[in-house]
Amino acid sequence: MRRASGSLHLASFAWTLALAGCGPGEARVTAFRASVIERANAVEQRAYTRPPADPARRLPGSFGEAFDAAATERGAVEASVETSNRCATLLGDKRAPLDGPKQDCLKDLETTSAALTKLLSLRHAERPGPPPSARPFAKAAPGEKVHRSLLALCTRARAEVRALVARDEAQSAASTCTSTLAVARDYALGSAMTGALAASQCIKDLEEPCADAIRALPAESEARPRRRQELEAIAATLPRFPDVFETELVGILLPLCAPLFDASDRDKLEPRARAVVVAADTAEARSSSRRTMSKLCVEGWDELDLAARAFRAPVGSPERARLRAEREAYVTTMPKTSFDKFEDGVAAAEATVRSLSKL
């Protein structure tokens, strides 16, 4: 999965070394460090809530840890993406009878049924959260591989929903939908930009097959109000873009600006954020001009902090308009990027689930 271009913008200023003018004063650098420390600690301490796991099926630990450990099942669904896509399309064609190629698809999907069941059961983990490599301040490379695993799982679930509806098993199809949407939600909570967008894409891809599954439930079925309640709970606990953006912002700026943080600054950071600063504060990083780095980091933070504050203001509000105008007027070395499409992408997940809950 390609890293979101917004993330590339957030990181790109670190490589811009040809700058004119003087660096910021030490007071601004000190204020920058204090602000980043406060925000980084808030990200690391942030607790995400969602409906508690079913006590009868509760799994210890976090969703992300369990998802990361299920390497065999993730590998199986990743290997089945082509088959899953083909069968989801074929089984979604209501005009064709359930024979011949459709029957072949049902048999093909059986080979990954156990892997799908295992991965969907992870929604019963005690806590939500992304896999370790996709968390903010992760020591490993960004979690594109596990993002691919999530999207492969969602592709396989889409084919499963189509297969169940084709066999007139609407209740099982609707259950698969809510389980997959809950998995996407658990993955997104605590993720930065790419993880949240991967979960949003998963949810969007499930919209049509899940709508068909819900519509196929008998009107008088007790499953309808239960599914509606589940979907409303998922929609209410999906991550909000301001949290996603803030996680992305500090997750990138903290390591890139690590040489500006002294020992007393590090002591103020939460453990994972502190480990990132220590690891990133290399001799090579320190070889850059402190004036250059200070200018890049302070300007980048000031400008993107205005963007973060604007995203926290209600859409269409005077406060958001004021902060956006202030950001637009801010003079910086780096070109400014609009993050509206990323906000729209994350918000689309909630809109999709709420739409399904009204069926």
Structural class: mainly alpha
Largest sheet: 2 strands, parallel
Average the pLDDT over all residues and give the rounded result: 89
Gross morphology is elongated
Enumerate how many helices there are, as a single number: 18
| Parts with pLDDT < 50 across at least 5 consecutive residues | 1-5, 11-22
Strand tally is 2
Radius of gyration: 23 Å
Describe the protein's architecture and organization.
The chain is mainly alpha-helical and 359 residues long. The protein has 2 domains: 17-46 and 244-333, no CATH class; 59-238 and 349-357, no CATH class. It is 67% helix and 2% strand. The chain is built from 18 helices and 2 strands.
List keywords for this structure.
2 strands, 2 domains, mainly alpha, disordered N terminus, 359 residues, elongated, 2% strand
Short note summarizing the structure:
This protein has 18 helices and two strands.
Q: How is the secondary structure organized here?
A:
Blueprint: H1 5-12, H2 26-45, E1 59-62, H3 63-69, H4 71-79, H5 81-91, H6 101-110, H7 113-120, E2 125-127, H8 144-166, H9 170-188, H10 193-215, H11 223-237, H12 241-256, H13 263-268, H14 271-280, H15 283-286, H16 290-312, H17 318-329, H18 340-357
Parallel strand pairs: 1-2
